[in-house]
Amino acid sequence: MKFRPIPLLAASLLAVLGATGSLRATVDDALAYALEAMTPYVSKGGQGFTMREDTWGGDLAAGDQKAIAVQLFKGNEYWFCMGTDVKGATVSVHLYDREGNLVEESDAWQRDTFAGARVKPKKTGSFFAIVKVEKSARERTHWGLVYSYK
């Protein structure tokens, strides 16, 4: 019987693609949790916020954080919601201005696999959403972040 490297190569590529697909599905699941956290603000009969198309996601180790730069406009109000699909993990999101000052409103919240922060910028400019995996039993925890405005 003759050795055929192409089927072996194809099987290897399928294995890699399968692994990549499951990684992507997990980030998508985390984004679904973030969207779930946003529901009270954007749903029919909610608070009148409109979802932005921008979403962010990735994975972080427990205790690690990531800064996401966003352009916000004076006169608008924004909700940022973060989620993870990892049971037992705790996440947080906070909003800062360019000088590093916390700018979120007092009704920001954090509940296990969900977190939310509201901001009403006093001026138009660049702001930073700091996302963090506070704790998790996993080495890396997938997260998703979405935001809305009115």
Tally of contiguous helical segments: 1
Strand content: 35-45%
Number of domains: 1
Which structural category do the helix and sheet elements fall into? alpha+beta
End-to-end separation in angstroms reads 68 Å
What's the multimeric state? single chain
Strand segment count: 8
What is the class in the CATH system? Mainly Beta
The CATH architecture classification is Sandwich
Q: Which regions are unreliable across 5 or more consecutive residues at pLDDT < 50?
A: 1-25
Mean pLDDT: 85
Give, in order, the helices and strands: HEEEEEEEE
Indicate the percent of residues in helices: 25-40%
How large, in whole angstroms, is the Cα Rg?
19 Å
| Anisotropy-based shape | globular
Which fold name fills CATH's third level, the topology?
A: Jelly Rolls
- Order of strands, main sheet, comes to 1-8-3-6-5
> How would a textbook summarize the main sheet?
5 strands, antiparallel
